[in-house]
Structures are given as structure tokens and as C-alpha cells.
Automatic annotation (TrEMBL), chains A, B, C, D, E, F:
A GO term for molecular function: hydantoin racemase activity
The protein's Enzyme Commission number: 5.1.99.5
UniProt signal peptide: none
Classification via Pfam families: Asp_Glu_race
Lineage, highest ranks first: Bacteria, Bacillati, Actinomycetota, Actinomycetes, Micrococcales
Protein name per its UniProtKB record: Hydantoin racemase
Species of the source: Glutamicibacter halophytocola
Domain of life: Bacteria
Amino acid sequence: MRILILNVNTTASMTQAIGDSARQAASPGTEIIELTPDFGADSCEGNFESYLAAIAVMDKVVRYTEPYDAVIQAGYGEHGREGLQELLEVPVVDITEAAASTAQFLGHKYSVVTTLDRTVPLIEDRLKLAGLTDRLASVRASGLGVLELESDPQRAVAAIVEQSRIAVEQDKAEVICLGCGGMAELEEQVREATGVPIVDGVRAAVTIAESLVRMGLTTSKVRTYAPPRPKTVTGWPLTQAANAL
Amino acid sequence: MRILILNVNTTASMTQAIGDSARQAASPGTEIIELTPDFGADSCEGNFESYLAAIAVMDKVVRYTEPYDAVIQAGYGEHGREGLQELLEVPVVDITEAAASTAQFLGHKYSVVTTLDRTVPLIEDRLKLAGLTDRLASVRASGLGVLELESDPQRAVAAIVEQSRIAVEQDKAEVICLGCGGMAELEEQVREATGVPIVDGVRAAVTIAESLVRMGLTTSKVRTYAPPRPKTVTGWPLTQAANAL
Amino acid sequence: MRILILNVNTTASMTQAIGDSARQAASPGTEIIELTPDFGADSCEGNFESYLAAIAVMDKVVRYTEPYDAVIQAGYGEHGREGLQELLEVPVVDITEAAASTAQFLGHKYSVVTTLDRTVPLIEDRLKLAGLTDRLASVRASGLGVLELESDPQRAVAAIVEQSRIAVEQDKAEVICLGCGGMAELEEQVREATGVPIVDGVRAAVTIAESLVRMGLTTSKVRTYAPPRPKTVTGWPLTQAANAL
Amino acid sequence: MRILILNVNTTASMTQAIGDSARQAASPGTEIIELTPDFGADSCEGNFESYLAAIAVMDKVVRYTEPYDAVIQAGYGEHGREGLQELLEVPVVDITEAAASTAQFLGHKYSVVTTLDRTVPLIEDRLKLAGLTDRLASVRASGLGVLELESDPQRAVAAIVEQSRIAVEQDKAEVICLGCGGMAELEEQVREATGVPIVDGVRAAVTIAESLVRMGLTTSKVRTYAPPRPKTVTGWPLTQAANAL
Amino acid sequence: MRILILNVNTTASMTQAIGDSARQAASPGTEIIELTPDFGADSCEGNFESYLAAIAVMDKVVRYTEPYDAVIQAGYGEHGREGLQELLEVPVVDITEAAASTAQFLGHKYSVVTTLDRTVPLIEDRLKLAGLTDRLASVRASGLGVLELESDPQRAVAAIVEQSRIAVEQDKAEVICLGCGGMAELEEQVREATGVPIVDGVRAAVTIAESLVRMGLTTSKVRTYAPPRPKTVTGWPLTQAANAL
Amino acid sequence: MRILILNVNTTASMTQAIGDSARQAASPGTEIIELTPDFGADSCEGNFESYLAAIAVMDKVVRYTEPYDAVIQAGYGEHGREGLQELLEVPVVDITEAAASTAQFLGHKYSVVTTLDRTVPLIEDRLKLAGLTDRLASVRASGLGVLELESDPQRAVAAIVEQSRIAVEQDKAEVICLGCGGMAELEEQVREATGVPIVDGVRAAVTIAESLVRMGLTTSKVRTYAPPRPKTVTGWPLTQAANAL
């Protein structure tokens, strides 16, 4: 089977890391196609960037012409999953929800540890819409941005490990979802520091997408995620309509 | 003061109707500027169209060069308000939230009556994020689309009146928010049929925007709605970057 | 238009301050009539005093013989608003709910900072009934009573500023509602110390009352707030029935 | 032990019926003193009447000069219990909460069946404040007023039996709390028609009050229900201050 | 009347202490029969032990051949109450729920203070199923096991007193339920240290069971707690079927 | 990998059907071992039977001596999963939770359709503990028992199809979880009648168990699901201790 995995920002190295991580989790016979949007921010750390990413991801997917079996949106706490579900026939999995759903099989409560304080409400809101907050112990931020994970990894890792430890000891989390990607060593260090299972959203999403495909299940089309009604849509897809705008 | 009010779809006649409605509610001295996005669907009845509208609205607002004091997003149950709040210094008011907040001053429970069944979950989700569902009796749909309000108004009105009546009698709503716009007679007929106050989102939003401006209140910038961090954003605003895409 | 604003305690200087604050927020052409109840406590800091105030406020309003367009109950976290809504045809606005509704347009979460610890549950309960707790970060108390705000303002302000700061930093509030009135400088100092918008309940209530009147909206009379059924009520209004008791 | 039980309306025959019902549930050695407020409505069917009753009940209790061990407020869905808890050292039990607490020991979900539709929100709100709504299946109204229970008992009983049956069959209630008093035969008929346990609030409250006294437990005085702070209260108790008003 | 009270563990000295405590709370004429399960753990501090206790308690009760009027399950946060309700005609009272229900009559919020951190989620989950968490301030653990209460009582008491104090001061509890039994002095010391009422689950359960019996109320049999359908059950009761397994 | 899947009742033909269904969903290389408890009821339709099943399942698993990688508890709405999580090192997946988690990836709201009305509260309670009720539209019962699914399949299927249709049309479910197993044709007929995706708990659980194993994730052992503390457990495992009881 072929799974498209969409980075939400325009940083190609992060797309590559996401693709690599997805391939590690994939079953034999699953092909992972990682895609980078053609417009948007080089990192998503707020609502404007996230809304722009939502459209850029849809824009990218609808122009992808090869067949595929499922789509993963690989941004933590980002907008847009519902739009993809309307546009596509295949299952769509968001990594924020995939991580939380998986965490709930492993412990009584879970926490999400992310980068910036300002993205905490975005993650909380996406989990609220997904109906996954009853067992959410906390969403905690390390205070360091997405790109600092790459520029000063040691300090970034230390801050995330510290917040994970507090989540387990004070907030009573029993599982940690890492709400930021791209660092193999991060997961290992958080696990050692806390003694709890660490869930990576990308890997969780790959296994869920594979499972849905294997069971022949796809998005319900009876109401919320029915295909868009036929109507005039000006300037879509944006990248193809560019000259007309 | 000057208030920008943004239609979320590309149908100019609806923008005009929204502007007229807003002007009716405005205080003396308030100038209403109604704007139509430059791309998107001619009516928003689902997530894809709503996400596209979110970006089209932001795209329109950031290119508006005259001074203004507040912005109203005039789509019922639509995405995007949080992005505007990040991008702008002035207060931003969404009509779905304005209507619900207003309704809560008038009765113990309120209902929203809208057009299509498929938009019910969008409205429910926006009200959930806004923290306005505790006193929500129901969101009900007439089963007729946005554009049918214009093409077969008599049948559309009858269907909306009927759902409003059920909301009051069965769901125990004491106030009705009309989740669809553009018809002066609709409001009067629903009021007569149900005997309850009818809240129009556009008018409610105008009074709230005016009030915030008069009190000197604007969006908090300490966390969720802080301005976007400085970073590379490719292809923004979309209409200006068209050639580059 | 004419708006009655009711102090809930019997301290005339506080009625005056409330009236002055209301007039600052009022539009040109709005007349503010501030009223003091004829019985009750000189400050409301608990349930007994608040229940007594509820009746004293109703007793005052029903004996007011001039025409008016709206009524504001100017007590933070007090009982009684529902009774006024039954007795009156005009809209009734409670300042606790007005402040919270307004705050929700300005930030993702809000806190209320009040005087005494013992009034925190009253405020929480009123917000719970109003359906405004989903985005409530916290209700915090400075530990100083209502009258100490007047007797030792410097210490009172410092305590309220400190709790507001904690609300923003620890509880993640992005807006502060001041649950205590009468000090112009307080608002400014809290804003400077926290960097977030400060909502004053009296002013918020005035703008909401004006808006409802302008839109021609008033309390729904179909169920909860229908006029009292005709029946024998002994000793009402209390001040007129005094001799009979 | 001696228990005061307070009717919330001024109808002496209902006070008598409440007292009789309480005595049936009381243990040997428990003396029941039933009291009628000196002012207020002859039946409580809305917020104004309920707020007035709250103060009239407090006014009656604070002037009662004999010793007693507990107080029961015998109105369904009425305001005021928190005020009594502040004013008194002995335990205070509200019949709405007593019935619901008792019902929860008997079935998975419970319903309340009451008289008028307009009192449904009052009962819902009191149960919400009491934290007793998670297992509440419904509050249903027969559509007949309190006094009609006495004037046309047959029709009143039939209407209440019908709503109880619907509560069990449609709302999945497994226990019924009767939110209206004074008819011995009513309880039996509802039980026969539904096959579920019927909880009477007055009797439940008597057993709870006795239990609290026997265990030496009384209202916590550390915060919410601390005695009122010393201050000037004008016109209290109202019946004694009558001449001064 | 005769009430069976079931210890959930196999430690006879704890059964004795539970029986003694129950007898202190019982009315004259109430006979308390304390029973120890015939299999299971010598203390219940987790789910496996609790599930085993659930079955051991049912196994014990169904083999008890004398008549009785009510059953109390005397384990804090344990599984099984619903099973007893199906098997028996008489009322069944769980001490966790009895304590919480009682606490809610005494203060605005309550906390439970228990022994081990690992039992906190069990207690939280039982209270969630019972619909008693809205006014739950916290469940706190002293960090000491059930049997340490007997082996090093001084240290155990100090730890529980400390957590109770934090519950009142930080979590704003106004009542404490002690989620661990068997020590008369513990209750007194916690009361002195905190100034709030202390509720003992065993005593609360005895008064509730007595009250239900006196009112002639018993478990609803229309749905959830209907008797088991006639079917083949292998190996039940376990202790009688032992040879067959 | 090897996955144990535990039937919760003692009917061998149902164990076989569960095993067959699991094998259909399993990846190549996954071995499914289906197990039947050695005691308990021949179908689980209530709390007593479910608690007994919980212990019988644990009793069976702890005596299984071959190595395995994950355990699935294949009963809908049954007790016991938490106990297995304490006793085992490998991941444990409950089919009720697996189905609901999977359904949430496919539609905005989901319903569960089961057999008997009396099991509805059990399923609701398990989903409540699992934190999976926010998007639950309803749990509906066909009114026919587990064994009738085998004895009169045509009537049973018709009743389940009807309830599924109502769930979609009235309760607004977009996905159906079948809360009863063993019939291949049932799933197909419900899908045809409703047009929505149908989730089978056994198959969903197999894919989730496989995914957890592949990602190297297992139950968190830091608190709730830590191994039982060392202590004296009388009569365990029950089947081995039979002679001692």
C-alpha cells in the first residue's frame, strides 16, 4: 500500500525526517511518500501558519496524481484534517490524534510535551475537538521553537526532558506524546528520564493508517465529511490558479 | 470608527446583504466596510470551503491598507478567527460566537438553526472551541443550502421556521440564533412562529465590535494570539505571490 | 435610552462609583440611573448577604416608577439575576456574566481576580450556571475584603496585581476580569503588571445592555423567565409591606 | 433530636403535609418542627418566588429561638440553601439534593418529575450546582401547577404518572424523584406504573439530616459557608425590621 | 434490621475494625454482621486485587444463608458494587460513594485522602462512574500502604494529615473523606489539623443503608441491575465449585 | 508475533468465531491464539457475569505458559482490562475501546449497537472510563440476547440493522461499532442499510495490538498499572487453588 505523509511546513529537511520516521514504522510492502507543501511557513507555530498549512496541504494532495491508500497530516496541533477528509476517499490520519489515541492504550492519563508555550492552546483545542481530553493530564511546552530543535539540540532536549518529568511526577501522566518531531535521540532520553512509554505521532499515524486500509475502512461520507457540493470555487487549487489571482 | 466585515464566500450579493445588515445595527459614526474574498467558494458549506475561506479572508484583510478599528468574520461556523487574531492588532469578532454570546443574555438555553445538515457539526465544533455549548439546546438544519435561500425563499423560510419551532418546543430553546443570513423577512417570521427572541449574528457582532473599541479593549497578545514569529513564509499573501507559486 | 444600574450593597459611595464608571462607558444619549437597595449589607461577601441583596435589588427595581430600557445588576458573583428577568420586560445584564462574555472575545482563557477567598465559590457557581466556565482559567482572591479596597487601597491593589500576575503566568489566563470595583487606578496597574486586557464588569454590562436595546432584543418569556403566575404573594414589595409583616 | 423543616411557600396546609411526611420518615426520638415563612408566595413556581422564599426561610429560621439539631429546606429546586449554611451551625439539607443523592444509590440513572415546565430549569440548575447531573436522565414536567395537585388531584396524578413512565422508557431512568409533594397516593401510583423506586425528597432529607447529626457532622466553616463577616446589615431580620423599612 | 458489611481483603483484623466502626454508627436495633472473603489479597491496592475482591465478596454474600436487609461493600475505590446489585434484592452501598455523597452535604468541595498513589486512579474512576466528581477537589495519596497503617501508625498518620492539610489549603477542599480505615485516632488528628469535617466511609454507609431500609427503598430492577438472566454459569459460587475447576 | 485473544464467556463456538475473525485481520506472521475461560457464564450480559469473566480471563491468561506479545480481551463493555494490564508486561487491548478509537478516525460521531438494553449502561460506563464518550452519539440495543444471535439470526440481524439506521438518522452517528460478534453477514447488512463504515471490535483490536508491538510500546508501569505489590493472595489462580477453597 502507498501512504502519503504531508509535512505542514516548507522545510524540506523536516519532511525528510518525517518520511524516515514513517518508514521505520511502516510494515513491509508499505510505501511512504513524503510531501512538502508548495507554500506556507518554514515552521508552524501558531494559528495563521497552521491555517495556511491546512490549505497548502490540501493544495498539495489534490494535485498528487498517483494512486495512494491513505494520507497522514504530520503537524502537531494543526488545523485542516477535516478538509482533507472531505476532499479524499481514502482514510486521513492526523498525528496529534494518532498519538493521543495510541497513548490511551498504554496508561491511565497521558501528557503532550511540545515546543512553544503559544502552541499549547492549539494542541488542546485539536484534542478537544477530537474528543481526547478526558484522560489528558497536561500539554506542556519546553519554551523552545521548532527550529531550535535543530540549531541547539542539546538545550532543546534538556528542556523537553524536564517538562516530561514534571508531566509524569506532578500532572500524573503515565505516557508522553512528543509534540515535536525529527530527533531520534529525544525519544530515548525522555523515556530514560521518566520511565514511561513515549509515543511518536508519525509512527502511531502510520500504523493506524495501515490498519484502516487493511480493514477496508475509510472516512464516512454521510454527513460531515461528504464530498464538497458542486459549486464554483475560484482560484483552486491555489498553485494552479496562481495566474488568475 | 471603521469596522471591516468580511464575507467568507465569493458571492458579491451576499457581501452586500451582510454590509446592509451591519449598517442597520451600527451606531451613528460607525463606518461599515464590507469585503469579499478574492478566491474561494461561492458559498461555504463544509470544511474544505471553510478552510479556504479562512485563508482568503486573512489574505483580503492583510492587503487592506486603510486604517480600521475592528474586524468581523461573517460566516456561520467557519474556521479562521484565531488566525485573524494573530495577524491583527484590532479586535476580531466571529458572528457565530457573537450570536451565541448575545443569546445567552436573553434566555436559559438557545438553539442555532442553519441550512444544511452537514454544517451542523462545524457549528457545534466552533461553539465547543468557544466554550459556548453548556447552554446550547441544539443546532438544527433546515436541509436547504445557502444559495436556495435566494432561489426558493418561500420554501427555505418555511423549513427554517419549522426547525425553529421544534427547537423551542422539543429542545427547550428560549432563543434562536439564525445560522444563515441575508433575508430580512426570515427573522420576523421565525419570531412570530416561536415567540422567542431571534439573534442575528451580523448585527450582534457589530454591537460587540463597537463595544470593544469603545472600551479600548483588543485581543490579548501574551500567548495564543501573539503576532506570528518572524520567519520565512512562502507565497503570502497568496494573491500577491500568485506569480511565484 | 435609560439604564438602571443596581448596586447590591447599601454603601452609597460604592453606588456612586458604579454610576460614574457606567457613565464613562455609556454612549451619548444613554442616561445611567444608579440605585442603592433600601436594605441589606453594606458589602456583599457571602451567600446570605447575596440572597438578601437579590431580594433588595428586586424590591428596589419594582418600585422604580419612571420608564427605563434595561437593568444592570452590579454585584460580582451575586444571586438574583433570574428573578429580575422574570419580573421585568426589559433586558437584564449581570456584571459577572458581562465581564466573562466580553473577556472571551479577547483571549483563549480568562481569569477572575476578586477580593475574599470565600467569594470564589460564589463566582465559580454563577459562571457555571451561566455556562461560561469552559474557558475560565481560574478565579483568584487577593484575601482582602471589599471595604479594605477603600481603607487601604495601596495594599489592596498590590494583592490584586499579584494574583493577576499568577493568573496569567501559572493559570495561563490571557484576559483578567476584575471581580471588584470602584478603583480607577487598579485597572491600569493590573494591565501594566500583566500585559493583558483588563475587563471591568460594569462597563462591559453597559455596552451589552445598550446593544440589546439597540437591537430590540429582550428577555425570552416562553419558559424560564416568564412573568410570575398570578398568585398571592404576602409582604411584597417588602419595603411597602413593612407594616404588615 | 429536633429537626426544623421549612416549607418555602406560605400555604399552611402544605406545611402540614410536609411535616406529616417528615414524621413518617423520622426515627423514634426525632422531633419534627414544621415552619411556614411569614412572607412570600403561596406556591413557588419560578425564580422571583424562589428568591423571596430563600430570604423568608432564613428570616424564619434565625428568629426561631428553641434549640435544634438540623434544618431541612423543603422546596424542590429552590434557591437559598447556601445562605442557611452560612447562618447556622447545624447541618442544612435541601430536599432536591437529598432526593437525588438517595436515588443514585438505587439505579444507574434517575429522573425528576415535577409540575410546571417553567420550573424544570430551576431544578436542573440546582442539581448542576450540587454536582448531581452526571447520572440525571431528565427533569420532566407534568404541565400542572403546584396548587392544581390539590384542586384536581386525579388529573394531576395521571399527568405525573405519564411523565414518569416516559422517563423510564425513553430517558432510561431507573429511579424517579418526585419533585412535588403532599400526595401519599401519588408515590404509590407512579411506582406501580413504572416498576421503579420512587424517592420522596422530604423523607430522604429527614434520614440524611438524622444521619449527619448522629455522626456528629456539620457544615464546614472554613470557606464558602463561614459565618457572615461582622458588618452593618440594614433591615434584618426583615420581619423584625419591618417598621424601619 | 441486619446489615452485612463486607471487607474486601482477607485480613481478619481489618474486618473486625470495620465491624466495630460500623457498630458505632448503627442505630439501636441494627445488627452488623462483618464478613471476610474466603479468597483474595490481604490488602487491596490495585485493579487485579480489586477485581478478585469483587468476585470474592459476591461469592461470600451469595453463600450467606441468614436473612439480611442491606449490604455494604467496605473497600475504598474498589470494583464490584454493580454485581452485588444484580445478585441481591436488598440495597447495596459502597463506602466510597457513601462518603462522597455525605461530604457533599457539608461543604462546597471535598477531597479524598488515601494511602498509595497507585490507588488514586481507582478512586477517581469509581467516583467518575458514580457521578460524584463535579465537586471533587482532589484525590491525594500519603504514599504509605494499607498495612503500614498498622505497622507504623505514627508515620502513616503524619503523612495523611499532611495531605489533608494540602487538600484544604491548596485544592480548596472543605471536607475530607478518609479513603483508608481502621484507625480511630486518625480521624481526630486530621480534623484538628484542618478544621474541616472528616467523613468516614463505613459510618456514612451504615447510616445510608439504614435510611434506605427504613424508607423501604431498594435497588431498581428494571434495567442495569436486573437479576442475571437464567443461563449456565460454570464454577459458581467459586468456593463451592472448587472441586469442579 | 503471537497474540492471545480471550473470549469472556465459556461458549467454545464463540471463541472459535472470535479467533477466526481475529485471524482475518491479522498481518502475515501474526499467530492468533484464542482462549476460553475455564469458568463463568456462557454469555456475558450483565455486571455479575462480567466481573466473573474479568477474573476468569485473568485466571486463564496467567496460567498460559507459552510466550506471547499482546493480549486482547474480546468482550463488549466488560470489566477487567485494568487487571490484565497490571498482571502482564505485554500490551492489553479491549475490543470496546479498540472499536471506539478506530471509529473516531472515520467520522465525526459514532454509535455502538449492541444486543440487550441492560448492557447499554455497561458499555457507556466502559467508554466513559476510557475517555471515549465526547464523540459518542448513542449506545443502542436491539433487544435480543447474545445467544439469540445464533438461534434466530435473521430476526437478530433485522433488529440490529434497524437500530443502526436510527443511530445514523436520528442520533447523527457517522460510524457504527457493532457491540456483538460472531456474524459475518451482520456487518455487511448494517453497512448496506446505513451507508456508514462499520467497525468490528475484534479486528480493530488485532490491528492495534500488532501496531503497539511493532512500535515496541507496552503498558506504562509507573503508577496505575504497576505490577501488584508482593503480598499474600489466597486462592489464586482460582483454578489451581480450587482444592484449597
